[in-house]
């Protein structure tokens, strides 16, 4: 009897011969899902930082040679993708012309600038004694790009000093800090002028990065001048980086912020504190701001805020058809009249009247 009962119990507990064995659950435990998600986020964050670091280095370190990447708005879709993945190509700027091309006698001089790097400059003397003006080029440029402006200043009786920032043209170095350390180059040039021509009015002219460097030099480093002529200066470092992403047609956050951070780390300063609009509040000399109406980097509203911080009369001078740093080339006559009026009475107004409606300028104001 007992054996029969045991067999019956065994038969009950055994699964039917045709039934499938139980399958293990395919659902991941919640903790594993969380850890995998965190790992993906961490890898993405590290990868984005590496990419931003590489982009910052490409934008601030000049290559020995090569072809420069086109402006963002000029790139094809494939070019934009390639640039986003690899960074820009920025060969070291060189001077391809000299004042000789305009029939202007000049002297090449040098003096130490930022980090004690030797700077090269062209000095073009004027027979008149209306003052001295130092000219500073933009990002990725060299002093030969300033020759058209120098010719106009010479016609107004100003001795001109065209300066290569460190990393550019005939100067030493191979980096740029988008205006931060270049302010020390401006300071060095201003010191050279003050020691060489102590009795003449001193003016500073800059385009884009050059204008930003001037604002930091005069608003933060205490450089003195009798007047500033500023073309296309950005108001904040972060703003100008965001605009580059906008031109590429991709979201700027958080890549733009990481680019500002790593660029500052590489160059030894706080990129988020590199804001010309703040420097402008401490500038104590007359200024004129000139902007392009089609500038994708510096909008008219940016320029208006900057001009207000500088306390310029009438606001910025707007060149409707000009792109970035193209004021003089887009409308030479308006540029000439703007500069002439400013030099005749620095800071009096930035509203440009037709030549027939006003008296001809009489030359720079001697202070």
Describe this structure as you would to a colleague.
The chain is an alpha/beta fold and 367 residues long. It is 40% helix and 12% strand. It is built from twelve helices and eight strands. An eight-stranded mixed β-sheet has the order 1-2-4-3-5-6-7-8, with helices on both faces. Helix 10 links the parallel strand 7 and strand 8. The radius of gyration is 30 Å and the shape is elongated.
Structure described in brief:
With 367 residues, the chain is of the alpha/beta class.
> Which word captures the global form?
elongated
Helix-strand sequence: HHHEEEHEHEHEHHHEHEHH
Mean pLDDT: 89
End-to-end Cα distance: 128 Å
The portion of residues forming beta strands comes to 5-15%
| Sequence stretches where pLDDT stays below 50 over 5 or more residues | 347-367
Radius of gyration: 30 Å
Residues in helices, as a percent range: 25-40%
Question: Total strand count, please?
Answer: 8
Biggest beta sheet summary: 8 strands, mixed
Order of strands across the main sheet: 1-2-4-3-5-6-7-8
How many DSSP helices?
A: 12
- Oligomerization state: single chain
Supply the helix-strand structural class.
Answer: alpha/beta
